[in-house]
Write a structure and sequence with these properties.
By secondary structure, chain A is an alpha/beta fold. Helix content of chain A is 40%, strand content 36%. A 5-stranded mixed β-sheet of chain A has the order 1-2-3-4-5. Chain B has 15 helices and 21 strands. The chains are: A alpha/beta, B alpha+beta.
Chain lengths: 98, 674
Amino acid sequence: MQISTKNENGKLTIFVSGRMDTVSAPELEQAIKSNIDDAQELVLDLSEMSYTSSAGLRVLLVAHKLMSKKGGMTVTGVNESVMEVLEITGFSDILDIK
Amino acid sequence: MKMFKQLRKNLAFNVIGAIVIMLIIFSVIVSTIGYLSFTNAFKKEYDETTYHMTNTATASVDPTRIDYYLKTNGQSSDFKRTQRYLDSYCLKMNVSLVYVIKVDTSDYGRFTSVFNSVGADTPYKPWKIGHQQDTTNDEYARIYKDMYENGLTRGTVYRFTDLKGAPPHITSLVPIKAHDKVTAIMCIQRPMKEIREVRYKFLAEIITAAVIMAVFVSFLASDFIRKQLINPIRCLASETTRFANENKRGDLPDQFAKVGEISDLAKSVYKMETDILHYINDITEIEAEKQRIGTELSVASTIQENSIPNIFPAFPDRTEFDIFASMTPAKEVGGDFYNYLLVDDDHLAFIIGDASGKGIPAALFMMVTNIIVSNGAQAGDTPAQVLTEANNHICEHNKADMFVTLWLGILEISTGKVTFANAGHDDVAVYRKNGRYEYFKTKHGLVVGAMQGIKYKDFEIQLEKGDKLFLYTDGVTEATNADNEMFTLDRTLRELNSMKDASPQGVIEGISKSVNAFVGGAPQFDDLTMLCLEYNGADSSKTLKVDATEENMGAVNDFLGEFLEEHNCPMKTQMQIELAIEEAYINVAKYAYGDGAGEAEVTVSFENNELTIVLKDSGTPYNPLEKEDPDITLSAEERPIGGLGVFLVKKVMDGVAYTYENGQNILTMKKVIE
């Protein structure tokens, strides 16, 4: 998994590519937590993320909860198989997916 | 009565009894003959004497004066003189009657008395001259006639019984002739009192003598027989009885019997005793030897049984095939054999063979052949190469000119291809799934051991899942019943086809049962050996064993990814499967062994479009499926962090099951791959 971050006037965009599994998910969690202080808004661009497990979902939920106190979190570019996982777990109803 | 019956069986009683009876018969015959000849001689002598008396008396009668005497009624002085003479003659000779008669020659029925003198102590009264009397009977009449007409010079009449008051007597008649003409007949009647007395006396004496003789001879004979025959025979009888009971050499006196035959018999009995003791000794030794051989044979039998694999299931962890075999020797050991062995992970060699002959030679030959062929197969050569080599090797050392038929096959487990070579063995029967058993006929090579330098040829059979091979020896096809009928190849095929669905073990037990039922009470003539192999298809499963750590997740993923790629799994499905295995594996890695370490085993297999993943660990027993599903309708704020893994597994897979077996948590996940 590769992560890149971009902060534009408090709008933090995190670009995730590859697989988000048990091993890699903590990296994303770390990246979010370390960049979130300067951000009002979080955009997770998952267009290059091919896979997520429950560990990834956990990170999404943690981030969602953190951002709900600020300007919220948006998830973009969700591919079909990741979307299925989000739907199965009811995350598609919680998250702001564009 | 019972005692008499016992006596009848007694030798002495029989022999002596027979002698006594024979002597009695002999005495009776001798007495009778003696009595008869004595009577005859005496009678003849009596007759002769009486005749002479009569003849003498005739001289005193003047034959020419008879008619005159009658005419003068005996008044003449010469008549009276003659009468007186005859009277005194009668008394002197001690006869009953002396009389002269003139017979009426017209019919000889009457006569006229001339002289008549009556003896003392007789019941008669003298006739007066001229007294007329009827002829006493025809016998007298015939004699009278013969004398008057035919010149008969003497006649005799016997009276043995009392007649009309007359005691038994003899009457002698002599004609009185004048100038060759019979003028009267002189008769003298003499009593037979003497003859009777003498005869009875003689009879008494001869009987007495015979009885004394009989008794004496009986004693003598019985004594001799007892001493020379019966006692020795009794002695021999008791000796043989003793020998029969004790089986020990006995002792009899040297001069045992004077009779040659008995003495020979005694010698024979002794020789027989000695021989029997020898034989008993020999038989005892033979019996001991037999027992020793029997023990050795039973050990040999165990060795042979254990020289071939006989524990089933033969390869419990190989699911690709099932093999079963049995060998039943006709004797303690046999020349048939089978064998099977894994050459490597992908090759199973299996052999069936039948060494010529039976019993120990065949068994030894079979053991050697089995080792050579098994070693050859183990080396990885093709069946034809193995048989060619084995043949050359065996021929070099085959002094006994034995041979063996062999069928060697090597199954490539991953493909089901069987390569085989046949050295004079019966064709294998092949079962095609949903079809039937057929013999797979190929050209047979020469039997192994017959000729050096033979080249065998490889043949191939492609087995598909569910196909079976049945190998057998001629002990099956040539099993013979009491009517001398054979089981035959046809019947074998029929029986096989009547149990098409049977497992290899079922097939062999079924054929065994059929053969036994067919043979019935007839003794098993040949070794009975069978081998059956069922091919279950290549094993598509793959297994990965790793230390159950989160770091090994990547390895598990790679392993699975490779397998799924091989089976052309669509991307989306692959993602779902990866998700499921990750969730399941991470659970094991995190919780199964607590703070300790342990292994996790992932097995994937693919069959009928269905992927099966089995995850095993030896950690704390835990059934993840028991955990309640999370409430996915809760808002983000209400949601707990985590707890979604197992739920995801259930959702993305088509089936999930958990068992705990042999100390292992076993989670089985299934997914249909389109």
